[in-house]
Amino acid sequence: MRALAIVLLWLHVAGLGTATAAEVRDHAAEQVAARTWVIHGPLGDPSPANQGFMNNPAFVVTADGVVVIDPGSSVHAGRMVLRQIRKVTDKPVTHVLNTHVHGDHWLGNHAFHDVFPGAQFMAHPLMIEGARGGQAKRWLDLIDQLTGGFTRGTRPVIPTVPVVEDQSFTAGGVTFRILAPPKAHSGTDIMIHVVEEGVLFLGDNVMNGRLGGMGDGSFRGNIAACERAAAVPAKIFVPGHGRTAGKEIVTAYRDYLSILFETARAEYDKGKQDYEMKETIRAKLGRFVGWEGFDLNFGRHIGVAVLEIEAL
Ligand SMILES: [Zn+2]
Prior knowledge:
Strand content: 5-15%
Order of helices and strands: HEEEEHEHHEHEEEEEHEHHH
CATH topology: Metallo-beta-lactamase, Chain A
CATH class: Alpha Beta
Helix content: 25-40%
Distance between the termini: 76 Å
Strand order of the largest sheet: 1-2-3-4-5-6-7
CATH architecture: 4-Layer Sandwich
Number of domains: 1
Bound molecules: zinc ion
Largest sheet: 7 strands, mixed
């Protein structure tokens, strides 16, 4: 009996088989198609309250295994994602796809590499290059700082398999087609069309109900990415942040970007500075004012747009 108690105590201390205080709390995976699940993360920026977890990890269960997309911001988030996968299937993870270089989407690779070191970790070649060139460390430090150290212990597992525009691969009878719009949200973006499922993973080229940074992106490139996404014959569109829905979330986000950019261009042509055009642009974006992060990001977005207009 004492031996059993010691074993149980050891299991508890080692955190095996159970979520410890240092783990990300469970967020339920929602089935959005026959073989596809999405975990819709909280909408805010990484914080102690959300344990750094705020993106939309997803997984597709194929005949041979599981294909994971964007397993979160830390090893802790990745373990949480794996716990949700285990509620659906015992199959091994065969592939992990990362939509872009921003660390809230891919630092969770660590958890999957620990358990499935033979899985293929895939991303845009410029995502791989950027992560190796300093973005991995930058994002690791940023999320550590924003979460008060919650995500500490995470190791960047940078993808090694590049995927490019119009590339397809099949896994367990499911076709994954890659779209790689140049310089859109981050310059390292892929979108993933899961053909038989009628699902398109948009990465951060589309957000729904939340705004994030555009500092690594391009308004014109991101608008073009939205147009491409809207032309994909899919029924279910999974944004990088916010609720999964139909094509209307793609056109809504395109509208946000294009109204902001075109109004900024018209105001710029009248000789206005970015702070002088803010109210005019805000008045045209009324339907987006309630989005998470609007106040923080809207002014910054105008700054990015004006730089892009100046460079035209
Ligand atoms: Zn991003």
